[in-house]
User: Fold this.
Amino acid sequence: MDANDRSARGFARGLTNYGDRDFARYLRKSFAKSMGYSDELLDAPIVGICTTPSGFNNCHRGVPELVEAVKRGVLAAGALPLEFPVLSLGEVFLSPTSLKYRNLMAMDVEEMIRAQPMDAVVLIGGCDKTVPAQLMGAVSADLPAVQLVTGPMSTGRYKGERLGACTDCRRFWSRYRAGEIDATEIDAVEGNLAVTAGTCAVMGTASTMACMAEALGIALPGSATIPAVHADRLRVAEATGRLAVRLVGSQLTPAKILTRAAFDNALRVLLALSGSTNAVIHLAAIAGRAGIVLDPAEINRLSDETPVLVNLKPTGDFYMEDLNAAGGISAVMAELEPLLNLDCQTIAGETLGARIARERGRYVDRAIVRTRDAPIDARGGLIALTGTLAPGGAILKRAAATPDLLEHEGRAVVFSSLDDLAQRIDDPRLDVAADDVLVLQNAGPKSASGMPEAGYLPIPKKLARAGVKDMVRISDARMSGTAFGTIVLHVTPEAAVGGPLGLVRNGDRIRLSAAAKRIDLLVAPDELARRAAEPTDVAPYEPARGYAALYREHVMSATDGCDFDFLQAVPHPG
Ligand code: FES
Assistant:
């Protein structure tokens, strides 16, 4: 038997290359014995546990306990659990932005799955970029894998009000900027926004990606929404460990689960959830690893047919712990059943249709998960835009927008970079009115800022104090999944590579039409050509070395998921 053949099991897989395989096997086993395992376990199949605890990741504080529960499940099912660390990305602790490191983490995950001797792998992630990074890496590593998420935070309380990160963080900060609350009050709120282990308590990016993992079929049914601190979270971790053992030797690799039909299902669920705009980037990146292209036109077709069913913040009233108690993703998928591809295989070994049939008749709280006949909105929460300002596409969270601004034409007020924005947005002399369109340039993937969640441009202080709550805001940046407003994001091509966004000047007219799914810069092409030939005062971002240089060179557009070009699979039509 070829020791590097995939038919090898456990410690016999992927031997270190000394030019003598028997010696490599002997040496490995003697070192493994130093860990105190019995021969019986050393000869068993191995389930790797890809873990992400970190002192810089509060959301993953509960991961060590989850690891123990997964190990229980693996041992009970007769295999050897071995945890291994990979990068951990704590959203608010990374500069310039966590997205920049998602691909680095995906490479870490892929290479460590491939390089170490394991027969299946459990991926434990949670905070925004960690789940997409693990799924991207696992698809490319092509080993049976199952996702387990940390689960969401529970809510805090302040003066009788429920609070959850981080929609309420933004709500209170907006009130502070508008002068409605003072510094003492904002300080008091600070300690009640994120009060337990787990990911942000609303339908932000982390929650959305957890739900996407379940909707794609690569996490156990019901596992996305269980609160981080609930005992069920440990039970589902144990069950995930048992499942991983059943996957040993199977052909059920991530690419078999993550098919085009499964991505259509996930997009339907995303739209019904009014989930995070960031999920569009991450799903495109995960799909790209499987050779699947997510077409913006297809997103719009699904969006026009898929109702918003779930009443969660940032667009609704409730929190993730409420969605879990209301029936979770099971309730959402049951309601979407006629729109879903029911033949999709799930990691649990059943089809999606069998799952929905098995779960039929369960309790659903209709205040939180509506029926198809009485939806929150008849159309999906997100739409893809195109037009002269974004020939390669852009995203608008329709459900989070002010309805009156969805059809809007206004005068552009332009900020050439994040620094420029920070310096001038609150300047009392800024020439800006409520019906203007705020434009931020040079915040896309290839910019120095690395596509931060800066698309939620603050309302200029003088307008906020006058009661203005929302304006049309446009950028090549992203937006936190916990934010809201009439905000056009991910404009492609980005300003830093010469996109029309970089050619907008103060006073230009811009027209947004959600009905036509267009975003247009109303400037003649010859004028744009003239501006393109002008020298720019924004210094080009050209890092000389290291990961920053690799990133700048190889990161693709938001429409392509911001993956590295050299990591994508070759697209296939099916
Ligand atoms: Fe980790 Fe929000 S900061 S999920």
